[in-house]
Amino acid sequence: MKCPFCHHEDTQVIDTRVSEEGDTIRRRRRCAHCDKRFTTYERIELSMPVIVKKNGSRADFDPAKLRASLMLALRKRPVSAEAVDAAIHRIEEKLLSSGAREVISGHIGELVMRELKRLDKIAYIRFASVYKSFEDVAEFQDAIAEVGRERKTPSK
Length: 156
Fold this sequence. Notes:
This protein is α+β, with helices and mostly antiparallel strands. It folds into two domains: 11-43; 50-152. It is built from five helices and six strands, in the order βββββααβααα. The protein has helices spanning 63-73, 81-98, 105-119, 121-131, 137-152; strands at 11-18, 24-31, 37-43, 50-52, 58-59, 102-104. The chain has a three-stranded antiparallel sheet, with no helix packed on it. Strands 5-4-6 form a three-stranded mixed sheet. Strand 1 (11-18) and strand 2 (24-31) form a beta hairpin. GO terms for molecular function: ATP binding; DNA binding; zinc ion binding. A zinc finger (unnamed) spans 3-34.
């Protein structure tokens, strides 16, 4: 690590501490050339996969867009902000744990539908109607019947 003062390449770690949260390592360093001390931090750098849209274009993952989609479907529904945050966190974790560098947008849509189905059935139907491009009442009825069947089957 270069010294920020004299730019000498030889520095020595004199103290290492892990943050209380456990997600950062703080290192005190001393320059062997000018003898000045400085602090560096190490953090995990996770990168979300790039989203491949239906038209083939690529875009960076944007959690604000994910939140906006969920909030639109959940508009005027009795779902807490904490529940929405938890759903977003689960979606992000699934994307990160996949290890994929690129993910098709349809996969994210499926993850959103799964979370909405857990949070609120009405919001799920709202989102599904747009996401799956429902074109007639029969498609709404099928989606409602699907939600109704799941509700009647006991949880495993």
